[in-house]
What does this fold into?
Amino acid sequence: MTTPSSDVLMSFEDAIATFDPVMGLEVHVELNTLTKMFCGCPTEFGAAPNTQVCPVCLGLPGALPVVNQKAVESAIRIGLALGCSIAPWSRFARKNYFYPDMPKDFQTSQYDEPIAFNGALDIVVETDDGPQSITLGIERAHMEEDTGKISHLGGATGRIHGADYSLIDYNRAGVPLIEIVTKPIEVEPALAPAVARAYVTELRELIVALGVSDAHMHQGSMRVDANLSLKPRGRAEFGTRTETKNVNSIRSVERAVRFEIQRQAVVLSSGGTIVQETRHFHENDGSTTSGRVKEEAEDYRYFPEPDLTPVAPDEAWVESLRATLPESPLLRRARIREEWGLSEHEMQSLINAGALDLVEQTVALGADPADARKWWTGEIARISNERGLDVAVLPITPADVHRIIVLTSDGALNDKLARQVIEGVLAGEGGPDEVVASRGLAVVSDDGALLEAIDAALAAQPDVADKIRDGKVQAAGAIVGAVMKATAGKADAARVRELILRRVSGA
Ligand code: ADP
Ligand code: MG
Ligand code: ZN
It folds into this structure.
């Protein structure tokens, strides 16, 4: 590992007492099209290196690119969902640079003519005074292509310095990307890190709802660069920004912003200057270290791509795409919260458990929202935590949970047995009914068998029996417990209590 920065930091509170942070977030989203941006090569992840390449994405002389229509469609839908205007006519540009990750020696991107521009996204951040809604400006969303992947090997750090050799995989070169860039974000200084996090969270949900990318940050199909500068309180003009690259989790975005605020504050208050540079984020301690001095746009010698025709989506097509937009995640959450009568807090824990979709699907099958929530955020979430997996990837479906809820409300299962059924389903023993049958988990509903166990328990604890007879009905709990134990938890506790009281009163 590279040694993380030994920068002196100012406390976050001191930093924001003197400076106002300005942020800019650039998010790259890898589209889930079947083929690449400008050729027919497959985009499937994980293939053997350099098996998904052709003359176009290898940049061989004479090869001619063609724009992927599906990628343009996804770009327009993202733009529309972000409230952007869609350019009736836009061009690709060549972004020239000399680095082996792009065999053409340029990346085909959009520069001054993005397909979507001037939009907004509403986010909600938690503050001390409760949730606060903030609208962030979107500068543009443009199309480009991903680069190849370079691995530096033989060294200790995986970075180029100290490596013996490097390998390049061009399978990723040419995979369609959409880059979404915010306008400069100026919010209440104390909220800046949380706003960065909330923005990326909201954008990710929107992308997933649109179905244009799986937007997995840990797999790199969504990547965030965080720009940050500080200016002395009250000054209008922006300071020099740094750009922390490829921050690959939502939590890291918040940490990177916070760290840069604290680091830049020290530099500026001691009379230093901030260099415009890219920085690397370090997951282990949340620090950033200097990368390379940032190129200016002119260093890239952008010019319009002569091999591609301009993208000129006709209005009718754009409008037909507008009709395919999903309900915005923000509105959807508000609607669900209202329909299910949840508090902010209950809704938040549902979202944090990653169970909103699953609960919604379970409810759609006919389950009561409270029951569906109880199992997904209770026992199932507990097991997912234990295994370090998302609830969504556990091998239990909304249909399974719905069935368990039906069995429970019919009295065929109690909660304890239901937990065992969940365990069995997750262990691959089949659906709920199969697990009930194979593990013999049905509730003992035969009153005769229950009364036998009750009589035995009353005989064993005559003092308790007396108390109940004297009207201390709470004492029945001890007998219920004994009966549950005798039936290995397979009794319906409410029914047992009823029978005990009847028995004691001589009925
Ligand atoms: P680059 O190509 O250099 O990455 P972009 O325009 O793609 O530049 O993105 C820059 C991002 O930083 C945008 O989100 C922009 O709003 C933001 N930004 C611009 N100037 C500043 C600044 N001085 N401080 C913080 N953020 C800034
Ligand atoms: Mg950029
Ligand atoms: Zn290709």
